[in-house]
Amino acid sequence: MRRNPSFTLASEEGVKRLVREHPWATIVSMTDASGLVASHYPVLLDETADGIDLLTHVGRPDEVVHELGRHEVLVIIQGPHGYVSSGWYDANPAVPTWNFVTAHLHGTPELLEPEENLRVLGALVDHFEGRMPEPRGMRSTPEDAAYAERIAAGTVGLRIPITRFVAKNKMSQNRPDETVDRIIAELDGDGPYASPALAAEMRRTHDALRAARAARGAAASAATAAGERA
Fold first, then answer.
1. Where does the source fall among the domains of life (predicted)?
2. Is 51 part of any domain?
3. What is the pLDDT of residue 224?
């Protein structure tokens, strides 16, 4: 991923929020047997861990195909993204772009014992079912519990402690406020590239930037006033 200091997402908490809100991950391995291998699975944060620990599972034989536990993997988390037309800018020469937020997480998976795998599977189900009007957990009925225990044998649970990450939050931070507001309005509209999720992410980013600018301005004004009184 191209490095650009203007768009770097360096905050561990920011990456955790991205994982919580966009838990469908791409897991990439460079294997001895097959070269590059990629699979797609939901992930959960272990909220009790000090750093970023991901909990997930793979369906057999993906643990063999990925050679899990033998090397580092790359886990890609993709948040809101979308096309930004140059027609949404000002009258100056411009080209279109693509705004996005994503994180590349690196770590070596630890394979879980069957009982821990079953617990993680249950936590995954509860996490997503919790939004349903009538949540159905993995053990909601004796029949569900028995079925889950049978099919769990076809999965392998994983903990992936993240040792390093590169994350990017590209939300037109290099554009003036009036252009940013126009882009957000277009994304919130009903045009061919409307994306309310991306508009919300841009709004979150620029609200924080504007608040930080206002705080710096207030601090500078206070310092100037104090100097004049001295």
1. Bacteria
2. yes
3. 83
